[in-house]
Amino acid sequence: MKKIKYISTKTILLLGGMVLGLAGCSEDDDAADNGEVIITSQSLKMDLTQFEREDAGVFMQAFYWDVEPIGDWYNIISDKVEDYKASGINRIWLPAPGKGASGGFSMGYDPSDYFDVGEFEQHGTVETRFGSRQELEDLIQKAHANDLEVIADIVMGHNSGGGLQANPFRGGDEVFSLFNEENGNASGKFNRTNEHFHPNDIHNNDEQDLFFAETDLCHDQQYVQDWLWGRDDSVAAFYKNTLGFDGWRFDYVKSFAPKWVKAWNDKIGGFSVGENFDGNQQVLKDWVDASGSPAFDFACFYRLDETLDRAHDLTALGEAGNMLRKLDASKAVTFVANHDTEKDENPDNRISYANKLLAYSYILTHDGYPTIFYLDYEAFKGQLKTLIQIYNTLAVGDVEIIEANEDEYIMKRSGSGNNPGLILYMNISRQTKQRVVKTNWANKKLVDYTDNSRATPTADGEGNATLSAPAGSYAIWSITKE
Ligand code: ZN
Ligand code: ZN
Predict the structure, then answer these.
(1) C-beta separation of 219 from 236 below 8 A
(2) Which pLDDT score is estimated for 423?
(3) How far is the CA of 301 from the centre of ligand 2 (A)?
(4) Ligand 1 centre and the CA of 257: distance in Å?
(5) What is the pLDDT of residue 40?
(6) What pTM was computed for the model?
(7) Whose CA is closest to 61, among 42, 80, 45?
(8) How confident is the model at residue 3 (pLDDT cuts 50, 70, 90)?
(9) Helix or strand or coil: residue 238?
């Protein structure tokens, strides 16, 4: 066993400069041949578990586009749930579970049979791309044993994979609107025909825009409402009560009215988030008000992408009202990447890998419910585990923006009770930045809980402290344990 040698604050400050030159130096490294360990800023940190919040947890998007190998995904995620739980994740979002028109290749966004979650032979396969019904149920059970909620992706705007049928609402033209036991709906539940799609005897289209004109589901049809969420054996009831899903991620909600999300949630309950693919914060706010459901904060995503990837200027992060989370944090599900943005050829629609952690440092210190994208977690596991722990503990209290300029963004969470809160310092310039900041921490020594900065400044009697952030990086400051 190693002998720990405690050294004075002054020594640590002196060592701070030296340690910078020693790549990978940590308290685990042997600092001297006699087995003594030198204490660096690491050992000054408070034990953050004492601040673990009741409502702690972040969202994990547990897939990416075209996950492989085909048929194995539920088992792959099943092997990860203990680690997700240990990292502070409280919900995992799985792909749309129903059988899609493209069978074993389907990512679930071409729904044909909602009740075939990998048990009927159709579209060339029994299993879905993600596995069998049994593997899905095993995964959900294991997630629940680890206190993780499991969220289903609900694609209820349009259908694919039905049989051809003459459509009187389209002048007798044949369209693929027939879904029954022989035509893409082997389960025999929620069989559909042309009257359940647009146009039909009620109207030509939704109050929202069309998605796929031929098989755009009409939620004004009572039969469609009943099968999706109304009946005791509806899609929603089957997913929640039989399979064990805890909540919903509604796909492409621009293709139907927000009142249908509200109706689903009123009937079945559970966590809910809508994908309203729109960078305008007011569009998002209007949708969460109408549906009662949280939404992904695309406005926050685009502001981060613009400031970090294109403008190279953080000023806009300080502007009022330009994200859903600034208008209504309780309804904002923030994110940095998803299965769509990550495969987008247009760099304006995704945040570059070089800026990923800066973007995560933002969403994992501010209010809103942050989402971690599967591939980002795999790529940046160590840093993201640290940021998630900070979010789950110190990221409490009012958000106060201290500075937002071309190179720097500094934000304070005020804390609450004995929780001291934090100060995020983002720096996108090519040199270390520092600034005297008014903190809530009079006469306290401070440390960066991300380890990006080795400095250990002390706040004076008024709380003023010289904080810093390394070039192209971030630091998250709070008080030390003494
Ligand atoms: Zn309709
Ligand atoms: Zn970009």
Answers:
(1) no
(2) 98
(3) 10
(4) 9
(5) 63
(6) 0.91
(7) 80
(8) very low
(9) helix
- For residue 204, the ligand closest to its alpha carbon is 1
Dist CA 229 CA 259 (whole Å): 13
The reported pLDDT for the residue numbered 405 is 98
Q: Which CATH superfamily is domain 401-479 in?
A: Golgi alpha-mannosidase II (2.60.40.1180)
**Residue 23 Cα to ligand 2 middle (Å):** 30
pLDDT digits (tens, 9 = 90+) for 43-83: 899 999 999 988 899 999 999 999 999 999 999 999 999 99
Q: Tell me, in angstroms, the distance from the centre of ligand 2 to residue 8's CA.
A: 45
What amino acid is encoded at 101 in this protein? A
Domain locations in the chain? 4-44, 50-396, 401-479
Summary mean pLDDT of the chain: 91
Ligand 2 centre distance from Cα of residue 75 (Å): 32
352 CA from centroid of ligand 2 (Å): 5
Instruction: Give how far Cα 110 sits from Cα of 66, 94, 101, 172, 439, Å.
Output: 13, 15, 6, 25, 52
Q: What percent of the chain has pLDDT over 90?
A: 86
CATH 3.40.630.30 fits 50-396, yes or no: no
What backbone phi and psi angles, to 5 degrees, belong to 23? -60, 135
Spacing, Cα 349 to ligand 2 middle (Å): 6
Does residue 199 have a cis peptide bond before it, meaning omega lies within 30 degrees of 0? yes
From the list 362, 409, 418, the residue with the least C-alpha distance to 390 is 362
Question: What token pair was written down for 469?
Answer: 């952030």
Of 444, 451, 342, residue with least CA distance to 387: 451
